[in-house]
Amino acid sequence: MAGRCWRSAAHAEGEVDERITAFYAELCTRFPPDSPDSPWMAALDVGIDHVIMNLSWSARNTQAIEAIQHLAAEHRLVIFDPQSEDAYPPGQ
Question: SS3 sequence, the chain?
């Protein structure tokens, strides 16, 4: 899924997964992308089946990672780390 999105720069078409919608909304509420204190290096990229997040190197990064892990587990989403190529199923 990640490779498809990165290679083509196009998102899959279809119905947006409601878990993605809820995860994204809660994440943006906690860490607004347009805030000067935002942990995001770039805009969040949202598709029907994923949210791509580029975190900055800051003290706020730890809070963002903890929130991402909590929200992913809550919404039964997998976290994929492209740097390590590890995938973390919900609750891990």
Answer: CHHHHHHHCCCCCCCCCHHHHHHHHHHHHHCCCCCCCCCECCCCEECCCCEECCECCCCHHHHHHHHHHHHHHHCCCCEEECCCCEEECCCC
Q: Name the CA dihedral angle for 19, 65, 74, 84, rounded to a multiple of 10 degrees.
A: 70
Q: Give CA–CA dist 5/9, Å, rounded.
A: 5
Q: Which two tokens stand for residue 2?
A: 């990640």
- Largest Cα–Cα distance of the chain, in whole Å? 37
Render pLDDT for 34-81 as a digit per residue (tens, 0 to 9).
888 888 888 788 888 888 888 887 756 888 999 999 999 999 999 988
Which pLDDT does position 52 carry in this prediction?
A: 85
